[in-house]
Amino acid sequence: MDTDLQIARQARKLPIADIAARLGLTPAEILPYGHDKAKISHAALAGLQGRPMGRLVLVTAINPTPAGEGKTTTTVGLGDALNRIGKRATVCIREASLGPNFGMKGGAAGGGRAQIVPMEEMNLHFTGDFHAVTSAHNLLSAMIDNHIYWGNALGLDTRRITWRRVMDMNDRALRDVVTGLGGVANGHVRQTGFDITVASEVMAILCLATDLADLQARLGRIVIGYTADRRPVTARDLRADGAMTALLRDALQPNLVQTLENNPALVHGGPFGNIAHGCNSIIATNAALRMSDYVVTEAGFGADLGAEKFLDIKCRMAGLQPSVAVLVATIRALKMNGGVAKADLGAEDVAGVRRGCANLGRHIENLLGFGLPVVVALNHFSGDTEAEVEALRAYCAEHGVKAITARHWAEGGAGAEELAQEVVALAEGGGADFHTLYPDSMPLWQKIETICTRIYRASHAEAAPGLRQQLETWEAAGHGRLPVCIAKTQYSFSTDPTLRGAPEGHIVPVREVRLNVGAGFVVAICGEIMTMPGLPRNPAAETIGLDEDGQIVGLF
Amino acid sequence: MDTDLQIARQARKLPIADIAARLGLTPAEILPYGHDKAKISHAALAGLQGRPMGRLVLVTAINPTPAGEGKTTTTVGLGDALNRIGKRATVCIREASLGPNFGMKGGAAGGGRAQIVPMEEMNLHFTGDFHAVTSAHNLLSAMIDNHIYWGNALGLDTRRITWRRVMDMNDRALRDVVTGLGGVANGHVRQTGFDITVASEVMAILCLATDLADLQARLGRIVIGYTADRRPVTARDLRADGAMTALLRDALQPNLVQTLENNPALVHGGPFGNIAHGCNSIIATNAALRMSDYVVTEAGFGADLGAEKFLDIKCRMAGLQPSVAVLVATIRALKMNGGVAKADLGAEDVAGVRRGCANLGRHIENLLGFGLPVVVALNHFSGDTEAEVEALRAYCAEHGVKAITARHWAEGGAGAEELAQEVVALAEGGGADFHTLYPDSMPLWQKIETICTRIYRASHAEAAPGLRQQLETWEAAGHGRLPVCIAKTQYSFSTDPTLRGAPEGHIVPVREVRLNVGAGFVVAICGEIMTMPGLPRNPAAETIGLDEDGQIVGLF
């Protein structure tokens, strides 16, 4: 079979205005970016208000392993399949970060015959959204140091500034820097650093804002640091919120592209899945729901992290009611979760599959616990044996859910029609009774404990010294109703990335908490979290370039 | 009269495909960005090769003063006027830098009824070109520190790395920084800094490259630093040139917008006018010349800096043959050049005008010296008196050139028709015999001296210790044929910004020289040059925002 890139290049893309027309949008309601990308205008978005909403399908997965699960591929394939069986379906996924493409080879949006195009542009500047986030973030940074330079009227404690700078680049040398050197004209010396753009609170805000007014309000609430007497100072105190909103005005408009089968896809926003919530924007999901029968979306990492945040943060804030959860697994990944080494994945190992199903079963239970009907999508690989697949089917049947083999990678939407039929049956069967894991009113520490014990199945969470007091201070300041965003390894239910399967009774150490008032959540950090990656010894950048036709090579 | 912003908002813009059609471009040959901006595709550019070229008109000015001259306004008004008198004319100007808009209020592209639209977008992200430059520049920076981190096989002397980072923001705290703090995992500690994006050599390269292959070759030649034994290390040595080219692929395509009178304008690239050459891209000018009878373009600052670099750097490299130089002056600016204080500009002062004409006369002589026919455009202000205008006319007549009053600010193209007629008469009269100031073969120091004595009328140039030896080293390394780019104050022929009029016999101290092999010039720095601005006490960002219609306010 051809590579993802070859398939993507062979795609017969329709003009983006034709894709927009399928959503009921006129050429005046979109802002084209070239011939195969467009933004849906703010005016068009406003015109959608009050329309009935379609059904929301969440695609999530077992804990990731090096074997790969194919969550995005399944999201795209399911979207195409729903269209094939007569539903107007739109896919909603995140945008890719520019920087990491120059380290490892870039990620396609999907794979095989289930992809979103144009692939190269989506991995480079796309429509400039991430550059706008970078600019808005760094404008605030510049205004902080400028405020101090001109007399520091707000009384910022320069040791207690928490707002850093960002760059969409893997650049480890910027993690920890000293700025303001060179004398009086350059300001005050300060130790600070850069994160990668997707880790910016501005990115999380862009993805959680419902309109421009909400965007500005959230930006204004960003806490950038503290005064000597520990009073928080906000972006609004610095009068930065208006200009940041102006910089993000266009970026807040969702991006429309298409699948290989010419179905609409909204690709918008890309917050980190660890220190942020890891889903595409609320504004894109809302728009898609008002223009489609079905919206298929995905959440970052495995269901313990991604689905939990999607449900407890994004759906809570946006008032979304998902109808079905699709839990993606592969025989190979199940075997790895069952302790099989990567080198041995080629051989049939039914016992390994059965052991790995413990991980799957835990996610099924958790998703059912949110009141969602569940279907397991077995993303088919050619090496899967009938006995292995049967072991999975039997396991799922015991848990009251169906496991359906999907062959969208090789066959496109046609390969996922059976999955689509089951999704429709569950969605239209009225079985969904979605509720969040915890109420807004629950105290912050109890929210953390609830996630750790109910989702991760830890015996308890353990707070670093002073941490619970910190949470109480925030509760006293009126932030107690915020949801919690846990940052921990995606490879395990525990905080030990090597502990696959379905561990229980472990302890979750919470090392640090951060208050993201603008995004509207409290981050609880459990383990090492890298917010500025580095480049490898032989970065992909060394082999990226243009061929004689001006096409980009080496990116994939 | 309405403000520039009000006039711009009232503009009846044509769909950008209609503007493209006027240039003979089909909808498939442009890449739209929204409905009023587009890029001209690489394929369309390739198709223009071999077509006959129109006539090139340079708009330049006397030395700038706080009174304002209106060079861009005249460029736009002249373009509109040429179209009115039956010539197919295209305007070519630079893009605006994002960062400075958050300090002082942003600059319109033109003014009054001679503007290019859309104004807000052109002052914000526009089509993302500057973000692409920022990314390409910083990718190289990251690859340098990454190369050192992984063992420094090229033997870079970390004290001799000259390549910094860039950000399109006014952020003085980044001028001088230490990176790589925080221990082994973050690399080696180094002192470095950030410049504003327009000061990047990558920006100069984007504007001087003739196609993608030339772009990559120039990027590869960038010298990023030296080994311990002083051998230069290039971007190509780091294998960064291909990925940088991929990042700049779209940015190299010129941006098409329109004037208020719906005439085509290419707005592309924006290198600094001091440490770089300060003109729009060669690729835009070349494309415009192949699609128009006339191309009206401008160069940064006054004619001593801007026109000299346009002619000796851009025209030399691109093989361009300008037909006419339009020298813009205002009565008010002439008076300031004649020593009149800003507060006294409202009163008639014929003697002041006559004194200021010395500055004008010097520029006329210089331009004639390049073999260009010259016309003086008097950009009309309502307070100008007939006696003052007559003094200017008489002065110009003595120097053998016409001074023509142009009222495009108030009247649009109709107000500049007489100027357009004179431009056509000069251009089609065959009087141009353009030649550069110095040949490629002249030694570098002699090139600097030639500019200082012949253009600035200094008695001589004075080299800082070791500087001439440095130039000789570069000549020995094969860089002796490069042109020279002087960085000095734009306010005077001398290096003293307060010395208006037409000083002569002064000494030009050359403090530093820099080798920009990628851009293809040697920079000679004469005076303080700021490559990263700061924000003022009350930055414009504090009042920028959106109104209830989502329109940007406070930017102008």
Short descriptors:
formate-tetrahydrofolate ligase activity (chains A, B), 3 domains, globular, Formyltetrahydrofolate synthetase, domain 3, homodimer, 556 residues, 12-stranded mixed sheet, 26 strands, Rossmann fold, alpha/beta, Domain 2, N(10)-formyltetrahydrofolate synthetase
Structure in words:
The structure is a homodimer of 556-residue chains. Chain A has 556 residues and is α/β, with parallel strands linked by helices. Chain A folds into 3 domains: 4-127 and 251-428, P-loop containing nucleotide triphosphate hydrolases (Rossmann fold, 3-Layer(aba) Sandwich), CATH 3.40.50; 130-245, Domain 2, N(10)-formyltetrahydrofolate synthetase, CATH 3.30.1510; 444-526, Formyltetrahydrofolate synthetase, domain 3, CATH 3.10.410.10. Chain A is built from 18 helices and 26 strands. In chain A, the strands form 7 sheets. In chain A, strands 1, 2, 3, 4, 5, 6, 14, 15, 16, 17, 18 and 19 form a 12-stranded mixed sheet that branches. A 3-stranded antiparallel sheet of chain A has the order 7-12-13, with no helix packed on it. The first copy, chain A, is globular. At the A-B interface, helix 6, strand 9, helix 9 and strand 25 of A face helix 6, strand 9, helix 9 and strand 25 of B. Chains A, B: Its EC number is 6.3.4.3. Chains A, B: Pfam families: FTHFS. Chains A, B: ATP binds at residues 65-72. Chains A, B: InterPro entries: Formate_THF_ligase (IPR000559), Formate_THF_ligase_CS (IPR020628).
